[in-house]
Amino acid sequence: MNLPVLVGLMVVKITLVLVVFLTTIAYVVLMERKVLGFIQLRYGPNRVGPWGLLQPLADMIKLLFKEEFTPPHANKTLFVLAPMIVAITAFMPFAAIPFADRILPDSLTIYGYQVDLTVAALNRGVIADVNIGLLYIFAISSLAVYGAVIGGWASNNKYSLLGGLRLCAQMVSYEVALGLSVIGVLMVAGSLSLVTIVEAQKSMWFIVYQPLGFLLYLCAAFAECARTPFDLIECENELVAGYQTEYSSMKWGLLMLGEYGHMIIASALAVTLFLGGWQGPFLPPIVWFLIKTFALIFLFIWVRGTYPRFRFDQLMYFGWKVLIPLALFNILLTGVVMMYL
Amino acid sequence: MNGAQTMPQTETMVLNLGPQHPSTHGVLRVVLELDGELIVKADPDIGYLHRGIEKMCEFRTYHQCLPLTDRIDYLAGSANNLGFVLAVEKLLGVEVPKRGQYIRVMIAELTRISSHLFWLGTHGHDLGAMTPLFYAFREREKLMDLFEMVWGGRLFPCYFRIGGLAADLPEGFTDQVWEFVETFPKKIEDYENLLTHNRIWIARTKGVGVMSPDEVLDWGWSGPMARGSGVDWDLRRDNPYSRYEDFDFVVPLGSNGDTYDRYLVRMEEMRQSNRIVRQVLENLPSGDINVADPRVALPPKERVYNNIEALINHFLIIEEGVIPPVGEVYQAIEAPKGELGFYIASDGTGHPLRVKIRAPSFANLAALGKLAKGRLLSDLIALIGTMDIVLADVDR
Fold it and tell me: Against a cut of 0.80, is the pTM above it?
């Protein structure tokens, strides 16, 4: 009897979160342009709206009105499929990330019905409190590689192909390092559920127990999001735009959404795993979550404004011979400490 | 069934890099044969910006050739002008007064700084470092403002004329150059903070594109490219022109001959150029800027307006230009990108019989195929960046 109400509430919640997430992506793009402008002695967008605040909207409208161009001899189905995969895999992981503590009371009375909101964690600041949350996020985000590889292949362009190949190798390598770097956190928290992990950091953030793990996670996350200094897959100086070369219009927009979505997810996940999630004094939990996430996004942008780019073989070397051994060492160290202390 | 048959057949891929590509610095086309990311063969294809400047010179008076030389290496217009006017002056057998020569040195060195700044920005950007581009362009923009004060334009100066300069320096110019000279060393530190000790930058540039001193001589490299390999050759010091012997500067040398050393050499060259400009400012003499010979230099304007002989003189120089004796001459200068030489043959008429320009970028680019072979695609981009080529200079 409460089912329709519950489903309705769930849909409202998901839509709200999705809309907020999409808007955040748009404004992270603006933030990146502004911060880079600040670093590079220029203004960034400042014409559309006050401080360029309407720039993302203008960009979006522009992209929607651009011609949908598919290059001749491209595999049309795969060509269209690729941006979808990239965008969807960027949105889905957010379902498991707790962005606040409690957002609603345990039960509500709607039209005389007593609705129990603890069902499906409706009252919590998370869409789905899955007990394998972390595994779910890694599983979904590693699917993103298909989008890029398919896009690179289907474009029928040599630059795209090279970009797709680079991305494939990079993602697969750094996926391993990324997975290994968070094992320490799992060992300390004793759970894969992100909600439990955040709650376990009530007294102390895990970055204190896992400083090495945090650094390794950051490095691997930069590579996973293909951000400078690991942005080899789309470096315009070598591969024009990598696997995105032939994309235009909203298809390109979706690839961009995916890229920035991954960046936000990576930052939010770092906050959840190492920086205490929404925990923090005085301010409401959601504010703390946003502050921490945006601080990390700022770090992403800052690094982009500072560092040159790795070469492909150096990237592989760094992943397999530096990050992975260090991550294994971190797991060993955590195990030893947990055993004897 | 042997193993070889079951192995998948692999073949190389031909990639057409350019002529429209973000980091080929203009319209360079490189036909690449790639085995994965490995370059099997790199074949630079040039000529997309060929304008026939050498041939065009044959139908123009010497003065009319001057604007064409602006467009050889458009990032260092004054350096090209200097090479040409020095060659014609050598042919004519005239010498510009000291003030004119000192001003030429100052402008040439500011041009070198401007050209190197452009190289720094684009080279950094090619390797993924975005910010040095904007930092370098901040200073380059200051230089452009200075240049604009002198000749009204930015890239195409035509300020050096046969027998002197177009005009004396404008009022307040030296003060502004002083300001630049005082602040510039600090700015170089800014760039170096971003790159010089950056581990990624070193990893990307060290050991890439190594040339031994012997190879440098074989391939005819010059300028910072040769000095990066330790070839101690700088025309400003070893074959001075325009009174470079009056100034004290160090010629920086590299030791490994790789991209990183060439980077260090160019950074130091900017410091040294700054030193030279400072010395010019300290010792700038007063006096004439043009030679007194009425067959070479235009008479002063007030005499043109008030004196019929001067007016005729003015017309003759404009219409016929300078008329050098029969002969041929080669004059090379140390342009920002290397040795820029002008060979001019004269048949005793008002326009040259033949002009040959020895452009540094052309000789430097020739070794691209050799250096890129067996390296990764990313290294090719680093190599194009370190060569500091301007395709207008290559193709002419």
Answer: yes
